[in-house]
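Open question from group meeting: does this chain pack into something compact, or does most of it stay loose? Before anyone orders reagents, we agreed to write out a predicted structure and look at it together. Recording both the input and the output here so the notebook holds the full record.
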Amino acid sequence: MEAAGNPVAEEGRSLLSPHEVEAPSRPLLELEGVWKVYGRGRGRVEAVKGVSLSVHQGDFLAVMGPSGSGKSTLLHLMGLLQRPTSGRVLFGGRDVSSLPDAALSALRNTEIGFVFQAFHLLPRAPALANVELPLLYRGLPARERRKLALAALARVGLADRAHHRPSELSGGEQQRVAVARALAGSPRLILADEPTGNLDSASGREVVSLLSRLNQELGVAVVVVTHDPEVAGAARKILWMRDGVLVGEAEPSSATAAPSPQPSSERPPLAGKGGRLRLRDLLRQGLGSLGRNRLRAGLTALGVVIGVAAVVLLVAVGAGVRSEVTRGIQSLGSDLIVAFPGSLEVSGGHPVSPLTSVDVSRIQERLGERARVAGSVASSARVSAGGRRVFATVDGTTAGFHEVVARPLAAGRWYTRGEVEAGARVAVLGSKVTRSLFADSSPLGRTVTVAGVSFRVVGTLVPVGSAGIGFDRDNMVFVPITALQAVAGRTTLDAIFVKAPSTSEVPRYKALVEEYLARTYPGDEFSVLGQDQILDLAGRLLAVVTIALSAIAAISLVVGGIGIMNVTLVSVAERTREIGVRRAVGARAKDVLWQFLLEAVLTSVAGGAVGLLLAVAGAYLLARLSPVPAEVTPWAVALAVGLALGVGVFFGVWPARRAARLDPVEALGRE
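Structure tokens returned:
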């Protein structure tokens, strides 16, 4: 965003160079038959009517007249803050009436200085920063801005008050700061609107004397709008207005009117070209504004903090669960095939299974001895022993199930085919159930109660350390399928597991199982999955759950974004005069837009950063202190950054555009 050239020239207009010195005979500013009309019909107001006048470099003019005569409107037209309804405004002999906003802003920045009755200083900025304001929009480096601003403050006698805020200065000192601000950019024209209206007599005389001295020493043209004859007496020509018309002019009768100065032959060289705000200065302004309202900015960002933290944490939990499930499924072996009733679609229902142990035997016969086949029926039940209880998954299986799904024993044995056929009440415990019921003692040979029925423990399993499809594979109790069916009153199976001889033969064995089921149960739908399909199904299930939960959490992001929009709108309303001042000293509409948009984005990004840190800490604590796995992946970090930026931009654009579209004159006059 740094200056690359004069934006006036960039608009295709051959206007004044900021350093060009016009010949004394050519008017610096001309108005030719200028009208300014507000409203239409009965609300039509003709504020300025056909005014023509010229201002030469070195002039000191006073415009007088009753209230409502159009003096201030005339000054705004001369200062390029408003466009004429008709007529022409010429600066340096060139018509500037129809120039784009950026070009007019550049001219105000490089050629014109404003002094207002109400001072219009930024209340929370020291005098030095207020004086630097027009230089900021000229794109000057900070060191050069500071040097020029200090020199301007020294010229008005306030070098020792450079770091005082307006509230720490008297009215006369505040107006002198405003004069220094108008002077800092070495303008050729200073426009003062009732500069002594809010001052006592002594302070007023100081300001008038200062303007006169600047006119004399620097050859700066000065135009003052005033009701005060004493102020007008310092000018060399007085213009009278009534009802929007210049009705006459006169030489001041006061002996204080100074002789006409000789126009200055040169202007101090400045590196900036006007109308280019540096990115680093834009960032500094945004951070400074937020820093001056820390509590409000923090509360505004709270919604984004909660939203980003919730979304990222849920995504992290989803990623962690996905990794655990993937490891659990992969631990079953890449040669595993699972068949179960129902559709593969995530939205499918849960039909009653027609599968029985007979199907296990028939599939085994069809596939041959090289394959291993087992059936399973699962239920949840309370398991107890010796006064201790645990809620676990109870899985009734056929013989050899542990070989099919690769569940190695830690101690003891698995139940035999004979025990399965006899419905023996024996059990093999997962590692978590073993720890919960028997602590460090051996459970072998001891009794556990499952759903009110006693089972003798014959084996324990090696810890898996990861979740299976929807449950903890260590929090399980395995019993003969016949025994569980007797307890639960069931005769069917939930699923049939097939272990193919090798990974390469999985497709062939899968097709054989599908063929058997289609022929045996022609009216039923089954899913027969290999490891890749199981992983895909589990991934889709987890993705749906994660997206649903994240969408719920994202509601807080919307609430946070609305908060940012609301606070930015409030900020625009509170700083309307500030916007007017910035526009008057040379800020383009886009500079104002970027300033408020950047403040909204910085608020959101700060909230996003805090939310991300909370999510990372939450994921760490979940992984360490709970059974819920959580992994903050790089794409989750990118998601947090994207969400924060998106919320700031989306909810900040409208308030920023509203600020940028404010009329400078209306903004300056807003209470």
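Observations to bring back to the group:
Residues 1-24, 268-275 have pLDDT under 50 and may be disordered.
The longest strand covers residues 372-385.
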